[in-house]
Structures are given as C-alpha cells and as structure tokens.
Design goal:
Elements: H1 10-15, H2 36-45, H3 48-53, H4 55-68, E1 74-75, H5 82-86, E2 91-94, E3 98-101, H6 108-112, H7 124-137, E4 143-148, H8 150-159, H9 167-175, H10 177-200, E5 205-210, H11 218-235, E6 239-240, E7 243-244, E8 247-251, H12 258-262, E9 268-270, H13 277-284, E10 289-294, H14 303-317, E11 323-327, H15 337-351
Parallel strand pairs: 1-4, 4-5, 5-8, 8-9, 9-10, 10-11
Antiparallel strand pairs: 2-3, 6-7
C-alpha cells in the first residue's frame, strides 16, 4: 500500500527538535464536549463507549476539530481505560461521576486473575479506528496514538473510578508493594503491546498520559510510575513507515522530575501550567522537545487575554527548536469553541518564522 505524503509534518519535526516554519499546536481532548458537533455525534452513537467502539464514529469525532481549526495533529479518539475494560473489569460511565468499574481489583488474587488483553483481539476496535482515521486523514496531519500510564490506570482499577486521594491504592502500595508491582507489570506489558499495535495500524507519534503520577511522593513516583513508563518506552517500536515514531511523556504535576523523565529515552515531555517553559528548557536542554503548557482556564478569558498568554509562553520558550504548543491538560467542556480558534491561530501568528 502506497501511503500519502504527509502534507503538514511540523508537529513531527518539532518533536524531533528540527526547524519548523511556525510552532505546531494541538489540544489535549481536542475532540470533546466543548464542540456542538461532538455532542451531536455522541448522542447519535448512544454512549461514550459506543462512540469509541465504532470506527466510523471515532473517525468522525477525531476529524471534527480539524474541520474547524488549523491544527497540526490529530489524536485518536478513544479512552485511557480501554485496557482495563478489556481485562474484564466492567467499565461504565455514571452521569456526573465519570468512569466506574463494576469489579475493581484490590487483592493479589484479583490481580493474578487479570488477563493480558490482545491488542488485535479484545482491543481490535481501537486498531480499526486507528486505521480508519489514518486513511481518512490522507496525509493531512500526523495521527497521535496514546495510552494511560500503568500507575494512572491502576488508580482507576483499584479505586473503582475517579478519586481525590487514591486512598485504596496508596494503602495497598505502602502495605503490600509487591501486589501493586504485580498489577503495574501486567499493565506495562499490556500498554506496550497496545501502543505497538497502534503504531502498526498507522499512529505516527505516541503520548503516554500519566495523569495521576503527580499525586505521588518523589521516591514513590520513581518506583511506581516512572520505572513502568521506562519499561514501555524500552519496548516500543521507534520507527515505522521509514520515519521515527516520537514518544511524548506527560506526567501532570511532574514538573519537579523533568530530568529523570527526560532520561527515559522519550522524545518529548508534556508540561502542565505549573512550570515555566524557560525553566524546563534550562533543566533538560536539547535532550528532549517540550510540549505545553497553557492553563486550559485561560480559554475562559477574553480573546485579547488568550492572545497575550500565547505570546508570553512563546516568548518564554524562546527562538529554539523543539516546542509543540498545547494546553497543560485537556480542554474543558465549557470553553467557547471560538476561543479555541483564537488560541490556535495566535500560536501560528506569533510563532511564524
């Protein structure tokens, strides 16, 4: 099969710290509830997971933000909890409460019974979506594949859903660390095969979302989060279709640990809004590219204030290679879609070389 030429590769070039004509930009959760067309698609699909499991719907919502905005990358529409769902935990979504599991795991016996899901079997619907989206993009922009980090997946699997303090998992971690390591080992193996399958089906860059790594102490982060992301990075396909497949590592709240994160062999670090671009660059130098790091709440401001903050962050990074502009976390459901346009267009306007 002859693959179409990538028409806009500035996102991949920036991740490889190569020169670009302007700073590339995409948004975490760019296909989401802030868009009226997304809400219509979700209603038509029947449920969130039906949206994920139907390749045509997943493709439709992945492309929606690209139809509105001059974004430099598309990201697979899926969810980080597809792996635990495929392990038979009974994922469901409670209105107003987010994801829940019918059968959380809290003992060694529970964890030993968990299967390693087949990336092409139980998770084949995700691979079907990746292939469908890649074909529909037709070389327009690169496609990002992703997964949750083992630690982040474990928080949902042990707590049974979202949590403020991760009491159950942290209690298990400090009382029976070997049990938590057993779970994290299984998850690292599952995530590695899952991401490699996404790459084989057409994902051109990978992001690992460590949404809750920042809830750990420094020694616990190294032991229970970072070492498992290291295992995944070590096991990933790093070249496909004759091109490097860059890996972005994003730990929300991980600004204190950038040097250790950069040493994993990833190509870029995602930053939240609690650390400055200048400080991050000084600390990691040219070892990795940086992605981020605007507070999503800025998008509630006026167009003038949005443009001002975009310019401040670009100036903070400076005239260097290796910056992908993004929010410091996902865009929120209450943002005016036109404010997202102001943000994206300002990145290109102020960064044009």
């Amino acid at each position: 099969m002859t693959l179409p030429v990538l028409k806009n590769d500035r996102f991949l070039r920036a991740l490889n710290r190569e020169s670009v004509d302007m700073t590339p930009v995409w948004m975490m959760r760019q296909a989401g509830r802030y868009l009226p067309e997304y809400r219509a698609s979700r209603k038509n699909a029947g449920s969130f997971m039906d949206l994920c499991r139907n390749a045509e719907f997943a493709c439709e919502v992945t492309l929606q933000p690209l139809e509105r905005y001059p974004l430099d990358a598309a990201i697979l529409f899926s969810d980080i909890l597809t792996i635990p769902d495929a392990m038979g935990m009974g994922l469901y979504f409670e209105a107003g409460e987010g994801p829940r599991f019918e059968r959380p795991v809290r003992t060694a016996k529970d964890i030993e019974a968990l299967p390693i899901p087949g990336a092409e079997d139980e998770l084949g619907y995700v691979m079907n979506a990746v292939s469908t989206i890649r074909k529909a993009l037709n070389g327009r922009v690169p496609l990002i594949g992703f997964a949750g980090s083992p630690w982040t997946l474990a928080t949902y699997m042990v707590e049974g859903g979202s949590s403020r303090d991760f009491r159950l998992l942290k209690e298990l971690m400090y009382k029976q660390p070997e049990v938590v390591h057993l779970l994290l080992d299984k998850l690292a193996e599952s995530v590695t095969s899952y991401l490699n399958a996404q790459i084989k089906h057409g994902a051109q860059a990978i992001q690992i979302f460590d949404s809750w790594g920042g809830a750990l102490s420094w020694p616990a982060y190294r032991e229970f989060s970072l070492q498992y992301m290291q295992k995944i990075i070590d096991g990933l396909i790093r070249e496909n279709e004759g091109r490097k497949v860059p890996v972005i590592l994003f730990t929300k709240g991980g600004g204190l640990w950038l040097e250790d994160m950069a040493a994993t062999g990833c190509d870029a670090l995602g930053l939240d809004w609690t650390i400055s671009m200048e400080n991050a660059r000084q600390r990691v130098g040219d070892k990795v590219a940086l992605q981020g790091n605007m507070d999503p709440a800025v998008l509630y401001g006026s167009p003038e204030s949005i443009r001002k903050e975009v310019k401040r962050i670009l100036d903070d990074f400076g005239p260097h290679n290796g910056h992908v502009f993004n929010l410091g976390h996902g865009i929120t459901p209450f943002v005016d879609p036109e404010h997202a346009r102001v943000f994206i267009e300002a990145v290109h306007e102020f960064s044009a070389r």
